[in-house]
Amino acid sequence: MFLRRFAGPLLAGVKATTGIVGLEVVPNAREVLISLYRETLKAVEPIPTTAQYRKSVEALTQHRLKVCTEEEDWEKIEEKIQGGQVEELIVQAQDELQLIPKMAEWKPWEVPEDYKVEIIEDDDSVPSHIPIHRPRL
């Protein structure tokens, strides 16, 4: 009785399960996310500032970090980010951290010097298997 009366309100905001098989509840998810987002922003620094990949990662991560630093309640974090449960956000951040070094190695923003772009001047030279998109009038 004592526990229910005093601990009940404290435990009301604690998540019992994620409802996703294999994805355990992270009681300190907010702190974990803040740490992962800061690590992500540091990890993406070697990528050129002109690369769209870096721009996208930084924008998304800065937005999510801002939400996590402004909100303490995991439900509000989930609601504002709209990217799933906080545990799913943790998995996403960990995945991004694994991808960053690979992207730095692959350098998809660089175009090889010998790369040639075929410029198609008119519809007659477009191969038949390529759809032609025209604006609606």
From TrEMBL:
Decide whether keyword DNA damage is in the record. Answer: no
Indicate where this protein resides in the cell.
Answer: Mitochondrion inner membrane
Q: How does it sit in the membrane?
A: Peripheral membrane protein
Superkingdom of the organism of origin: Eukaryota
One Pfam family of this protein, by short name?
ETC_C1_NDUFA5
**Which keywords describe this protein according to UniProt?**
Electron transport, Membrane, Mitochondrion, Mitochondrion inner membrane, Respiratory chain, Transport
InterPro entries linked to this entry: NDUFA5
Give the family from UniProt.
Belongs to the complex I NDUFA5 subunit family.
Q: What is this protein called?
A: NADH dehydrogenase [ubiquinone] 1 alpha subcomplex subunit 5
**Organism expressing this protein natively:** Sphagnum jensenii
Taxonomic lineage:
Eukaryota, Viridiplantae, Streptophyta, Embryophyta, Bryophyta
